[in-house]
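Let us practice reading a record.
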Amino acid sequence: MVDFHDPAVVQADFVAFVKLIHVTAGLYMWEYLTTLNFEWSYITGERPYRRTIWVYAIGRLASLATAVIFLVSLNVRAKVNCQAMYSISLICSYLAFTCTATLVALRVIAIWLWSRYTIALSVGLWSVTAGFFLFGIIQGRSSWVPGLGCSTAQGDWLLSARGSVNSIFATDFVLLLLQLIGLLRFGRTRERGVWVLLCKQGIIWLAVATFAQLVAMLFMNMNFNSAYPFYEKMFVTPAMYAMQICVSRMYCSLMEHNERPGAILGADPNELSLSIPTIEVFDASTSNFGTGAVRGTERR
């Protein structure tokens, strides 16, 4: 059995942690730069303005800032203000998690036709997670250790970090289940192309979020070596990158679907306002044809 208190094992694991952060940060930076033309198309006016683009853009920028800060903290050799750097990294990473959850929540609320119960549940879950985030930012402590660099303090920080990771996992899992249940309940997955797209995206997002966050949550809650906090944080940041890439890709594909000729979505793809198709109706009393409408949002 592996002894996680053995200095040789700790050293090897820390090297693996540093490599993992570098690889995942590099992958996210590549993803950000190769998809930056999507935001640029809104800046230049090539695409119509969407309200949710701000949530999308802020989440991506927050993840990018987190990647940069982590790389700096792992490679800096001169003494720096570790507390300021750590607080900023926490704010950016929590903001990125919040933006991804917000985009999913907006989609869930729209699928459930702006049900008050769904809105209340989504806001409640988001508020609980935001509370853990705020507690984690307040309790987070980091200091410079000669030979090691910036080191995170334990104690209350670990408690708040575990609460944050667990709440993120619970929030995303519940929201994604609500999304799939809503799609299946209203039976639109076989009627309209957008609902097929949403159902496929929901399954992909559920699989990615569950796997990435489950691994991060397990490592966060397992006490490998309390003297070295990097064990608990091993997969938290990679999970954030995976979630951000996944939700960004889904958001872009849904936007592009909305902007195609004949798209059935409304002004914002996360609002999912369906058009009302018009049909011809024969009036027997006048032997004339008139027009009628069948609401696309009618439940079966």
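A brief commentary: The longest strand covers residues 278-283.
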